[in-house]
Specification:
Elements: H1 2-17, E1 19-23, E2 32-34, E3 39-49, H2 51-60, E4 64-65, H3 71-81, E5 86-88, E6 110-114, E7 122-126, E8 132-139, E9 145-149
Parallel strand pairs: 5-8
Antiparallel strand pairs: 1-9, 2-3, 3-8, 4-8, 5-6, 6-7
InterPro entries: C-type_lectin-like, C-type_lectin-like/link_sf, C-type_lectin/matrix_domain, CTDL_fold
Signal peptide: 1-24
Protein name: C-type lectin domain-containing protein
């Protein structure tokens, strides 16, 4: 009986003494990490602003207006924005584009907007006059990792 209790206690210590807790990689709980890419996103669902104001807003918090470089990232950002028309930044080193047919920007005053369309299509909008939501992104300040916490005080 003594040996059985010791074995059970040892098993309990092993099971509960090293519970892995995910350590957040983004600056705060308001930011959302895009799994494994080391990027964090912050969506402002309350405020609409012009393109230039959106860029300034993101820069003021140490981030940049979101750039989308893949179908999967586009769908991830679309999920965060829940269909709200949102400014996006073109990235010159990305091949991915998702414009609605005939809606690519045609002038310097045309900026890109992620729409509420079925596939998260992009359209163009007047940078100076139109107001849309903003989503900022940044590299995670530290990589995602697992931290082990010990609970020996319970035994």
């Amino acid at each position: 009986l003594f040996q059985t209790r010791m074995s059970l206690r040892s098993l309990a210590i092993v099971l509960f003494s090293t519970a892995a807790l995910a350590e957040a990689a983004c600056p705060s709980s308001e930011w959302i990490e895009y799994g494994g890419t080391n990027k964090c996103f912050l969506f402002d669902s309350e405020t609409k602003m012009t393109y230039k104001a959106a860029i300034n807003h993101c820069e003021s918090i140490g981030a940049s207006l979101v750039s989308i470089c893949s179908f999967f990232e586009n769908q991830f950002v679309r999920g965060i924005t829940r269909g709200a028309d949102t400014w996006i930044e073109p990235k010159t080193d990305c091949d991915y584009k998702n414009y609605l047919i005939g809606s690519e920007p045609t002038s310097m005053k045309s900026c890109r907007v992620l729409t509420d369309g079925w596939d998260g299509e992009w359209t163009s909008a007047d940078c100076d006059t139109e107001k849309h939501h903003v989503i900022c992104s940044m590299k995670a300040p530290r990589p995602s990792s697992f931290r082990f916490r010990r609970f020996f005080r319970f035994f």
